[in-house]
Amino acid sequence: MAMNKTILVYSPKYNTDLSIFGVSKPFALDRGQMVLDQLEKDRDKSVARVEPDLISVEDLELVHTKKYLETLKDSEVWKQIFELRHKEFFASPKNLPLSDLFDDIRLKCGGTLLATELALKHGLAANLGGGYHHAFPDRGRGFCVLNDIAVSIRSLQKRRLVKNVLIVDLDFHQGDGTALIFKNDPTVFTLSVHSEEGWPEEKQQSTLDVGLYENQMKDYQQHVENAVDKALQTFTPDLVIYIGGSDPYEKDVLAGTKFMQLTLDEMNKRDKYVIDKFADKQIPLAMVFAGGYGPHVWEVHYFAVKYMLNRAGC
Q1: Fold of 2-17+28-65+102-312
Q2: Distance (Å, whole) CA 192 – CA 245
């Protein structure tokens, strides 16, 4: 029965306490728990979710070089990836080394892999976290250490669960890591609708890039729909991974996201469109959260997850 489906992936361990590592940088809050708390208030009961396992090192090596993975034992490498500046990191013998975060990230990567597997089984699924689309094979950047999206795709392909995968990346920032990883790979279509004026300054080449300027935001939804339609004209996916970043939201507090100021209604329209588009075509879709900064961006994910649950009959 549909009511027995569990399509959400989450672990309380996603909420890493960075203070015990000496970090005071305001990373994205654990939006997954906020989403679940609000859903449970709505429903007056617990919301079913399944906890992931750590992604295997063997799966990581399908994308990332062994040399790079070895460097993650060095806390200085983590400082560079997290862009920790003066007064954002306090080294102390009492703090855990940053390299101890490796398993935290592996767990969230395992969440994305599990969400893709659940999507193939049930049609729709979401990892209430993940979406580290800036990680390259040989280095991390932009707060992204391991590219959970790419690793999940390669794991599924290795096991012959899928052949063709479409990445629909609607984060504020271009999905440069996934674009580079899958460049010239005809089995993975990378679609990125992002701020042309925003970071990263040096963009990679996706299969289809739609870089928007601030004065084009009034037509944002039309650009998204046109891009998805264009992708489907030439590519038939076995699976879609939807990177539903909340950083285009007008309440995002990251200074660099000022070029996109979409309302909550506009964000909801975007997410409903993507979910409906592929559900209507009976193409499995797995959603990840990706970027979103500040105390209010969880609202975007809440409405997206709520809509997905309703659409899936859960």
Answers
A1: Arginase; Chain A (3.40.800)
A2: 11
Summarize pLDDT for 247-297 with one digit per residue, the tens: 999 999 988 999 999 999 999 999 999 999 999 999 999 999 999 999 999
Residue spans per domain, the chain: 2-17+28-65+102-312
In SS3 terms, the chain reads as CHHHCCCEECCHHHCCCHHHHCECCCCCCCHHHHHHHHHHHHHCCCCCCECCCCCCHHHHCCCCCHHHHHHCCCHHHHHHHCCCCCCCECCCCCCCCHHHHHHHHHHHHHHHHHHHHHHHHHCEEEECCCCCCCCECCECECCECCCHHHHHHHHHHHCCCCCCEEEEECCCCCCHHHHHHCCCCCCEEEEEEEECCCCCCCCCCCCEEEEECHHHHHHHHHHHHHHHHHHHHHCCCCEEEEECCCCCECCCCCHHHCCCCECHHHHHHHHHHHHHHHHHCCCCEEEECCCCCCCCCHHHHHHHHHHHHHHHCC
Q: Would you state the structure tokens that stand for residue 108, as one six-digit string?
A: 């969230």
Minimal CA–CA distance to 278: which of 308, 258, 314, 252?
A: 308
Is the pTM value of this prediction over 0.85?
A: yes
